[in-house]
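Checklist before submission:
- one chain only
- standard amino acids only
- sequence pasted in full

Submission:
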Amino acid sequence: ATAQDTFNINNLETMVGPTAFMWDLNNAKYEIPKGSGKHSLFAHEYWFGGVDDGGQLKVAAQTYKQGGNDFWAGPYHDKCVPNNMDSLWDRVWKINKTEIDYHMLNYNSSSYLMPKDIENWPAHGDTSLGQAFYLAPFIDINNDSIYNPLLGDYPDIKGDQALYVIRNDIGNIHTETEADPIGLEQHIMFYGYQSVCPATNHTLFVNMKFYNRSTENINQFYAGTWVDPDLG
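Returned file contents:
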């Protein structure tokens, strides 16, 4: 996965994508204040690990990806998948609250041009591939349990701008850690606010959910954050 998009709603700017956070595999992208050319983080990742009921270690972790990948774009699946699976999910869904506010008022107007990331919000997986039916959160206007933005449904985001990615650790062999996969599915929403409060206006928030989609229990499970900071 190589897709990235830019968080830039407040006085902080950074790049995020399914397999690289705060950098683009070459350069630091976590710029604060925005436009200053100063970057306080070079790279950032999540590390996960535990053992199954047989005591087998399961790990998903990356640093600079010198050795390869432990994560791939998209939700967990338990079937052989089409060749375009990665390209379908190798993306970032970026939505501003102003777009949702406008959508709520105009979704049934003939002149309304719906933003692609609202129209294609990854609310549901393909159950024929073993993906979970419910993925990205959404507001269900008519309570039919189906995401349909043409009927007024919309993404359930946080903040004034949100960037959403889904990834898994079962897309291939773990060439970074060389460990067995967990069966992990990770949903990450990066978000922030435009605010008169300096602290809030210089903050990137992250809401993360992770699921064990495998058929095995994962015991002694740990989740960590790996950060390469650049201060000064």
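Reviewer check: The CA atoms of residues 6 and 15 lie 5 Å apart.
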